[in-house]
Amino acid sequence: MGFTAPDPYATNLRECLQSTRRTREGTGVNTTERERDVRPWGEYVVLEDEADAKVKRITVRPGKRLSYQRHQRRAEHWFVVTGTAHVTLDGVEHQLHAGQAIDIPRGGAHRIANPGSDDLVFIEVQVGDYFGEDDIERLEDDYGRA
User: Fold this and answer.
1) Mind listing the pLDDT tens digit for each residue in 77-102?
2) pTM of the entire structure?
3) Which of 18, 29, 88, 107 is least surrounded by CB atoms within 10 angstroms?
4) Do residues 46 and 55 touch, judged by C-beta distance below 8 A?
5) Dihedral through CA 144, CA 36, CA 54, CA 87, nearest 10?
């Protein structure tokens, strides 16, 4: 049965999934090409991208930080793999180390920074009904994107 897009957000999701999924010729095995992106603060790779969740492995370079932002259509869970994370959540500062996690609710203003001298790596699990980059409301940004 085909995918039915009831609204423009679902249409964007369908196009995204179709552009990242490929079938190996002759095998019938579905494979997913992992989406990667390099940003001024580091990089990320998408590990999983489904209709109800998206999972990224994010690397933040030493001394860098992501924009202070919020999302209306998704919540996030961050699990620190290596390094130390300085997290701001609704104006409250939190320090996280490897093995620790924090939940970011929908609409919560949040930022993660790497105060260390080595890379910070964390896993971000997004849960909601839409995961597009246009669901980012940047409140502050070190790179002129706010």
Assistant:
1) 999 999 999 999 999 999 999 999 99
2) 0.77
3) 29
4) yes
5) -50
